[in-house]
Amino acid sequence: MHASQIAEDYPSVTKDSDALAAAKLLAEHRLPGIVVTDGDRVPRAVLPASQVVRFLVPGYVQDDPSLAGVLSESVADRVADALRGKTVGELLPKSTSKPVMPVVRADDTVIEVAALMARCRCPLVAVVDGTQMVGVITASRLLQVALAAT
Amino acid sequence: MHASQIAEDYPSVTKDSDALAAAKLLAEHRLPGIVVTDGDRVPRAVLPASQVVRFLVPGYVQDDPSLAGVLSESVADRVADALRGKTVGELLPKSTSKPVMPVVRADDTVIEVAALMARCRCPLVAVVDGTQMVGVITASRLLQVALAAT
Prior knowledge:
The structure is a homodimer.
Chain A: H1 3-6, H2 19-28, E1 33-37, E2 43-48, H3 49-54, H4 59-63, H5 73-76, H6 88-91, E3 103-105, H7 110-120, E4 124-129, E5 132-138, H8 139-148
Parallel strand pairs in A: 3-4
Antiparallel strand pairs in A: 1-2, 4-5
Helix pairs in contact in A: 7-8
């Protein structure tokens, strides 16, 4: 069983992709994060779902969390409007250190994927063939594969 | 829309639960982590899926990652055997600091859940009614709900 056989295929996003479309991919595929590639499908960063959630929260609530409770439900139910018109690049964490982009090769074994995931404590790795991404493997997907044999 | 309406219900685990059964829940529900409760269903800790993956990797491979590549595929395909006979408590990260257990109330709004998730950068929160857990909300589930209105 190789990484390419475990990998799940779904459309990749780039920094210029629509933020709302990226959020929909996370929601539909129930992913803990999504891989951001450059124009050549080379994986460059992971955008965690919890980071996208951050943009659902109005700035004044981030400054004063107690305000969250007094917002009307109709406002609370329209939070996704905040993602409209933004790009994926605008959602990425502003980090001073270069983000770690965990990558496995298409022919890596389950153990090799597990070893990388354990080392980086990451919930998601990109699978590359050469330099191009061919899919992703989440920690829960890896468990699914490992447990199928039990 | 309240937290209790968004929450997803699935069997909880305790420190004494079977590690293999907990891994199966993570795999089946495609969760980034699972909440560990005490005997009274009070949420106490989150066990991340990437932490469970760590136990799929033999100790000698953790010590020398280059050995992962030389393991035969038949061994690599039987990694789940390592979880047999262990408890959830044995899988939990050994941390000196008390783990953060993110919790929202059943009547919290989408904005309140999002605000907590954004603050703790956590992919999963427990929903409690009083002190007892009634379900969990993942970041991707929250996005699913927020985007349903778009």
